[in-house]
Amino acid sequence: MDKSAWQIAVLFAGAALGGTYLGGYEWLRFFAYFGSWGTIGAVLAAIALGWFGFSVLSVCHRVGIRSLHELFLYWFGEAFGPSLSVLSHFFILAYSGVTIGQHAAQMADGSVSLLFVLLPLIVASVWMKKGWDWILFGAAISLGIGFLLFGLIFLEQQHVPIPNLGYQMNVNWVIHALLYIGLHFLLTLALTIPLVRNLTSIGSLRMGIGAGSLIFFLVLMIGQAILLAYWHDIHASDSPIQIILQQLFPFGEWVVAILSLVQSGIMMAATMYALAMPIVEKHDLHLLPLILVMLVVIASFALLPFALSWSVPIIASGATYCGLSLLVRFVWKRQLP
């Protein structure tokens, strides 16, 4: 695998999993709640993200699209593209903030939770200062640590129950799988489109998306198995993996808390860099002021869940519908002669 394909694989897998995936709450809500139907939904989500991601990035490579903003302009035109692009960029930054705030509030109370908000912001600032290579290396290491951690938890299990398909037999699992695809489709495109211009061939793109999809699928399936195995302990929890590790290892809950926040900080750095660099290059701006503005926006939204818990689903829904608009537009354009 060449360097460009490796970079796409790392960022695609990281965005598909989500910055706070080590906490397990998002997977519990989107997949594990629905038992075996949720497992089917997870498989379909992995396949859909891989296929749609490769298809859209192939278009970007062929046409010469270098950023998420240019993709909106290309598909929605000058009338709607700029507004949808600004809205999507806003929701991506806001979503990065509220997920960190929600995750911090779930792990601790009071001033300690505010320190948990500060940690990923510091990590993101340090990684941004080190540069793109550090961000990619950090994303790869954090993915490896997450895979190893989930593997260790999985090996501790004696049995993984497989709920029959009569359990939770409704369409909610389809809706939740579609919402997960829409949200993470937007995130994967935001992080990977700027890398497409460095590709030497479409084969590198195919290899990168294939490897990233495989990593995403393996980690997601292991995580789903873990959540089903410990269902009675964690089904009502906001931090399921933390509870599981607390039972298995001394200080396990703190290990996953720190790792998750570091992971989210690295993915935050990747998101800001991917969104900022196309703007900097196009308009000949300085990177630092733009990054500082993004950090302020993310930090502001990271504090919002402490005051308004309902802000998290609203922001997540906004980002999801922006992603679904891209997905629907892509499918519609494929139907045109």
From TrEMBL:
InterPro entries attached to this UniProt entry: YkvI-like
TM regions (residue ranges): 34-60, 72-95, 107-127, 134-155, 175-196, 208-231, 251-275, 287-308, 314-332
Residues in coiled coil: none
Presence of keyword Transmembrane: yes
Highest taxon in the source lineage: Bacteria
Keywords for this protein: Membrane, Transmembrane, Transmembrane helix
PANTHER family registered for this protein in UniProt: CONSERVED MEMBRANE PROTEIN, MEMBRANE PROTEIN
Name this polypeptide is given: Transporter
